[in-house]
Amino acid sequence: MQRIKPKKSLGQNFLHDKNIARKIVNHFDPRENDTVLEIGPGTGALTELLAGRCKKLYLVEKDKRAIEFLDQRYGDDDTIRIIKSDILDISIPKLATEDGKLRVIGNIPYYITSPILFHILDQRRYVYDLMMLMQLEVARRITSHPSSTDYGILSVLTQTWATPAFLFKVPATVFYPKPSVDSALVHIVFNRERNEIADENRYRSVVRGTFGTRRKMLRSTLKRLYPELPLHQDHFSIDLNKRPEECSVDDFIQLTNEIDHGIKRRR
Predict the structure, then answer these.
(1) Per-residue pLDDT at 55 exceeds 60
(2) Model confidence over 2-32: pLDDT tens digits?
(3) Are residues 182 and 207 both part of a single domain?
(4) Which domain range does residue 22 map to?
(5) How does DSSP classify residue 114?
(6) Long-range contacts at 52-61 (CB < 8 A, ≥ 24 apart)
(7) CATH of the domain at 229
(8) pLDDT tens, 131-178?
């Protein structure tokens, strides 16, 4: 496999272990009718295993050196389209219009994992699933459950609209250069529509706001977020003495809808 000198500014840690690459793609299980978007293919550790196994493969890469390498190898393949861009600038609906929902896979720079996840969450109606190599700590946050120390904003917002699964831990030794922490492979299936959420923006604000002071009770944080709203317990089905880490996704949805109802009632 050709090597490109990793750029620290891009957070590059290239996967060089072919056995791990095969294991990842086997879990992803691309099908001949799939439209797949690979984030940050680099020198193609996953790309070479995806090529020829799906209907259309989009390679989104911002490093011009990697673009040149990928173009030399895959430029004549009509099933592969190389896009020089930051994934955060990509409009997923535009790529999904022709072939239906996208499947997304990638080895993600640690510093941009959360922005990428939220970018895809915002466009989830056009994505079937997402498989990402990410920092082990972040993988645990995404897949954790209420009352655990890792449970937080990433857990709630991901699990609101998707089912995440922690697949396996990946040691730092399979990357070049070797990062200081281990990684993990996470598979996220966007299989939940939440039409019962009255105001999605308010929902996100409640989740972020309450976890911003996660050790405080909901009552205390909500008083700061919504000073105009009387916080009488009999107006809420969720115990306002709970801390956010004790609340399930359904609890947050119910809490947000009751806040929304209370605000509208006062207008």
Answers:
(1) yes
(2) 566 656 666 667 788 999 999 999 999 999 9
(3) no
(4) 8-189
(5) H
(6) 52/79, 54/30, 54/79, 54/103, 55/79, 55/99, 56/80, 56/81, 56/98, 56/99, 57/81, 58/83, 58/95, 58/102, 59/83, 60/85, 60/87, 60/90, 61/85
(7) 1.10.8.100
(8) 999 999 999 999 999 999 999 999 999 999 999 999 999 999 998 878
- DSSP secondary structure string, 193-211? --TT-S-HHHHHHHHHHHH
Say which CATH number the domain at 46 has.
3.40.50.150
Cis peptide upstream of residue 177 (ω within 30 degrees of 0): yes
User: In this prediction, what percent of the chain has a pLDDT beyond 90?
Assistant: 77
Note whether 208 and 185 are same-domain residues: no
Residue type at position 90? I
The predicted model scores a pTM of 0.92
168 and 72 housed in the same domain: yes
What is the count of structural domains for the chain? 2
